[in-house]
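Narrative progress, year one. The postdoctoral researcher (J.K.) led the effort to move from monomer predictions toward full complexes, under supervision of the PI. The following entry was the first complex the group processed end to end, covering 542 residues in total.
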Amino acid sequence: MLSYTLLAGLLFGLYFSLVAVGLNLVFGVMRLINLAHGDFLMLGAFLAYGLYAAAGLNPLYAIPAAIVAFMLAGVALYYAVVPRLQASRDPQMLSFILLFGVSQIIEALAVIAFGNNQRAIPATVFGSRPVLLLGQSFPVAWVVSAAVSAVALVVVYVYLYHSRLGYATRAVMASRDEAASTGINVHRVSAIALGTGLALAAVAGVFSAFMLGSIEPDMGIGITTTSFAVIVIGSLGNPLGTVLGGLVYGVGLMVMETFYPSWADLLPYVLLILILLVRPSGLLGQRVRLA
Amino acid sequence: MSSSADRNEPILLRASGLAAGYGPLQVLWDVDLEVASRECVILLGPNGAGKTTLLKSLLGLVPLWGGQIEFGGSRVERLRTDRRVQAGIAYMSEIGVFPNLSVDENLRLGGYFLPRHETRLRAQRLYAKFPDLVQHRRALAASLSGGQRKMLSLAKAFMSGPRLLVMDEPSAGLSPRYVKEVVATLDGLHAEGLSMLIAEQNLGFLDLADRVCVLDSGRMRFSGDRSTLERDDVLRRSYFGLEEPSRAKPD
């Protein structure tokens, strides 16, 4: 029982890392909390559902479409909003209010477009035979979701640590002014980071039907809260810290759902408050936050 | 110390009537400043005089409220910071490096807007010029000593191939030994013909100066050569506590 719980927790942990990594990337680069993060994930979920419902397409085919569409949306959102925000006297507070507004608009438009009904994609779309991992049997949809999450996290790592654009992104994370005075176009780097953040959220959304339950327009705010808990647990502002945060959260969630199911919904809030009180720099702390 | 400036050298940077500030607070008031090609200008002034704000406004890091900036004959005050760097102005802030990146990554970022092969070539040349950095190339910049970090900061600024090096308190956080090392390095670069604008409080940097400017309370109080500054009783006593030249202690 315990080994099943822990393995399931690791699978979900990888998935929650993907759910939250985009939020952390955006926070690291722009120092703003994207309160609409969960709503972009919801749109990714509806994209996968739409392709499945209209053409019977496997959700994996929604991934490239989600990456292209949400990358472009992120770049457009950046140039439409962020430079104006940053020129204001209190960009943090203004961005908080503005992105909350964006979240509400996306949710309202999603209700108009898709209705209030809950939607689902059958988990058998990936096959009906369970997958054996270390002697334990898991739904194939969980394993596929975790595998895609792991690949996406590796891509984020390669982007940040083994590409010129990644060096520039980490430079902007360290100091926008220092980056600009090194000759880096901080707006271009930030726009790409926001696009990447939204694309990662949308890719996570593709698997939300299997990992988070049903797809519905008002799922965004809860996902944003969960994502925030995950990145605070790991290390706020350090995308790689998100992986630790996601794994801790995933295992914690599975333990709660197995042994104390009625308390499981409280987990993100309890963890968030505990970490902020006990270790506000996250489990990995300031040293790794810089990395 | 070398002095490569010539009175007939063309003006490389000309800022006139600069006004700038933060929020409702005005910090710079009608500031004029010129730096000629191959000239080293030391910008002196007490804490809070507006030296950093002036340098940042030249780079576009602080928005101008008024005034003009010409660099190499072209107006640049409307250009983004990265465009000004690409035009040939390199800026070395007090921190000067990205502590979360390795030495090599810092250096390569200095030439971020250059083609890859050019970045590689320049990095090789700079490793030859600053050999102390070679053995630390994979180390985080945060792990370097203050002096090594300053050298990395200089090398990073040089990656862009600047015509003007703007530096904010290069002596900050350095022991006297490292200050001498930095001054010697800058002297060598100046001798090669690099124009420099250095904001400092450490009077050791006056040895580099072709010209000295004094900023106080956001206004330019003096611009001239070092000997004129040293003969001015008010400036000498008010801002620097310098002794009269005849009674100055030898090094």
